[in-house]
TrEMBL record:
Natural source organism: Aliiroseovarius salicola
Key words of the record: ATP-binding, NAD, Nucleotide-binding, Nucleotidyltransferase, Pyridine nucleotide biosynthesis, Transferase
Domain Cytidyltransferase-like: start-end pairs: 16-194
Catalytic activity as recorded in UniProt: nicotinate beta-D-ribonucleotide + ATP + H(+) = deamido-NAD(+) + diphosphate
Family: Belongs to the NadD family.
Cited function: Catalyzes the reversible adenylation of nicotinate mononucleotide (NaMN) to nicotinic acid adenine dinucleotide (NaAD).
GO molecular function: nicotinate-nucleotide adenylyltransferase activity
Protein name (Swiss-Prot/TrEMBL): Probable nicotinate-nucleotide adenylyltransferase
Length: 202
C-alpha cells in the first residue's frame, strides 16, 4: 500500500528517527525533543520501520505501532511516518538515498540512541551513511562508553563535533556526527514487552 509522504521544502533540516517503535515510549519522545532543541532541526520525522534488517523476529503490525506512536508523540514539529513502505527500502542507507532523491535540497540528519552507534558498523553500507548524512547521537543509559569506543566513533573521530557545539551539526557537510549527553530516560520497548504492557493487535 502507498502512504502519503510528509511535506518538506528545500533548505529545511529534517531529523530522521528510525525505529521498530514496538511500542513507542517516552524515551523516543524525549530524545526527539532533545534533538529538535540541540541539533538545530526544523522538524523530526519518525520512520516506523516495516522491520529491522538485523532482528530475527518481526515486530507487531505496523498499524498498531503507528497508532501507539501517534499517541506517545504529539508535537507540532514531529511527524510519524511509514516512509519505508513507500520507498520499499529496508536498509537505512537505501532509505536515505531514496529520501535524498525524493526531496532535493532538503537536509537530512540521521538520529539514533547511543546503543545504535555502538553497533553501527554492522549496518549495511554504514560508511556511506556517515559520508553522506550528519548523524546526531543521543546518550542512552548504559551505552555511552561503548558508543564512544565503537568502531564507527573511532574511525570517524575527526568528524566528531563536541556536544556543546551540536547546533552546528545540521550545517556541516558529512561526515559529521555528535553524541550529546541529554538527561537520560531508562526505558525501552523490550522492557515494556517483557512487562506484558504491549498487546500486538491493530
Ligand atoms: N531511552 C532511550 N534513550 C535514548 N535513545 C533511545 C531510547 N529508546 C530508544 N532510543 C533510540 O530510538 C531509536 C528507535 O529505538 P527502538 O524503536 O528500537 O526502541 P528500543 O526501546 O531501543 O527497542 P528495543 O528495546 O526493542 O530494542 C533507536 O535509535 C534507539 O537507540
Ligand atoms: O541499515 C541497516 O543495516 C540497519 C540495521 C539495523 C537497524 N537499522 C535501522 O535502525 C533503526 C533502529 O532500529 P531498531 O529496530 O533498533 O529500532 C531503524 O530505522 C532500522 O531500520 C538499520
Amino acid at each position: 500500500m502507498r502512504h502519503e509522504l510528509p511535506y518538506a521544502v528545500p533548505g529545511q533540516v529534517i531529523g530522521l528517527l528510525g525505529g521498530s517503535f514496538d511500542p513507542a515510549h517516552e524515551g523516543h519522545a524525549h530524545i526527539t525533543r532533545e534533538a529538535l532543541k540541540r541539533f538545530g532541526l526544523d522538524r523530526v520525522w519518525w520512520l516506523i520501520s516495516p522491520r529491522n534488517p538485523l532482528k530475527q523476529s518481526g515486530p507487531a503490525p505496523i498499524g498498531s505501532r503507528m497508532k501507539r506512536a501517534k499517541e506517545v508523540m504529539q508535537h507540532p514539529r514531529v511527524e510519524i511516518t511509514r516512509i519505508e513502505e513507500h520507498t520499499g527500502t529496508r536498509y537505512t542507507a537505501e532509505t536515505l538515498a531514496a529520501l535524498m532523491e525524493l526531496y532535493p535540497g532538503v537536509r537530512f540528519v540521521w538520529l539514533m540512541g547511543a546503543d545504535n552507534l555502538a553497533g553501527f558498523h554492522h549496518w549495511d553500507n554504514w560508511r556511506w551513511i556517515m559520508d553522506h548524512v550528519p548523524v546526531g547521537v543521543i546518550a542512552r543509559p548504559g551505552d555511552r562508553v561503548q558508543a564512544r569506543m565503537s568502531p564507527a566513533a573511532l574511525i570517524y573521530r575527526d568528524a566528531r563535533i563536541r556536544g556543546r557545539e551540536a547546533q552546528k551539526l545540521s550545517h556541516r557537510v558529512a561526515p559529521a556526527w555528535t553524541l550529546i549527553n541529554a538527561p537520560m530516560r531508562d526505558i525501552s520497548s523490550s522492557q515494556i514487552r517483557a512487562d506484558g504492557k504491549w498487546s500486538n493487535r491493530d
